[in-house]
Amino acid sequence: MGKIKNFLKSKHGFTFIEILVAVGVIGFALPIVFSIVFTIFRQQTKIYRLTEAKKQGDYILNLSKNLITSATGIYADPALATEKCDGIISNAYSTVGNDFYFKDKNAAAINIILSSGQIATGPSRIPMTNSNVEVNDYQISCVKSTIASEALVTLKFDIKYKTSSTNVEDATPELSYQSSYKLRN
């Protein structure tokens, strides 16, 4: 019987102070952990948006390069009647692209235009980008230094991930692209 009384008197548990200290440590550490997780999540979102914008910008450049380098001429109209960059030291410039038509190997007129923040191609304006990105400051130009030289077409644009948020932390930087291509003879 004495052993049972001693067992009941001995306390096998935590004291009130120990519980308060444990709750205090958890209460202090939990906001720090959530803050770190939230920051990591926000950074991953920024990385995803920047990667998507870069992927779309690279895709535009690749398609544009294929279209321009395979073109046989640059024209101001879809009927391919008025040639651009055809004289000695001539150049042309556009901020929308609706007056730059490239004659492809099948003698069809194809253009690269800015339409509602998207880069599109062809007479039916097939988008080259998806709706997640927005293209700004689009410019297309051509320069021909001599009558015998090939025209040099320069394509320039800024692209960024489209977001509806107005938070500065959610803003995605714009990526600037510029590349020049020569027409084939």
Please describe the structure with a list of short key phrases separated by commas or semicolons.
2 helices, 185 residues, single chain, alpha+beta, four-stranded antiparallel beta sheet, rod-shaped
Account of the 3D structure:
The protein has 185 residues and is α+β, with helices and mostly antiparallel strands. The chain is 34% helix and 29% strand. Strands 2-8-9-10 form a four-stranded antiparallel beta sheet, covered by helices on one side. A three-stranded antiparallel beta sheet has the order 1-3-4, with no helix packed on it. The protein has a three-stranded antiparallel beta sheet with strand order 5-6-7, with no helix packed on it. The chain is rod-shaped. The termini are far apart.
Distance between the termini: 109 Å
- Shape verdict: rod-shaped
Low-confidence segments, given as residue ranges, are none
Cα gyration radius (Å): 31 Å
Find the count of extended strands (DSSP E, 2+ residues).
10
Helix-strand category: alpha+beta
How many helices? The count is 2
For the sheet with most strands, the description reads:
4 strands, antiparallel
Share of residues in strands: 25-35%
Strand arrangement in the largest pleated sheet: 2-8-9-10
User: Helical amount among residues, as a percent range?
Assistant: 25-40%
Nearest-integer average pLDDT: 85
The run of helices and strands is HHEEEEEEEEEE
How would you concisely characterize the structure shown here?
With 185 residues, this protein is α+β, with helices and mostly antiparallel strands. It has helices at 2-9, 16-69; strands spanning 73-75, 90-94, 101-103, 109-110, 112-115, 118-121, 126-127, 133-144, 152-161, 175-182. The chain contains two helices and ten strands.
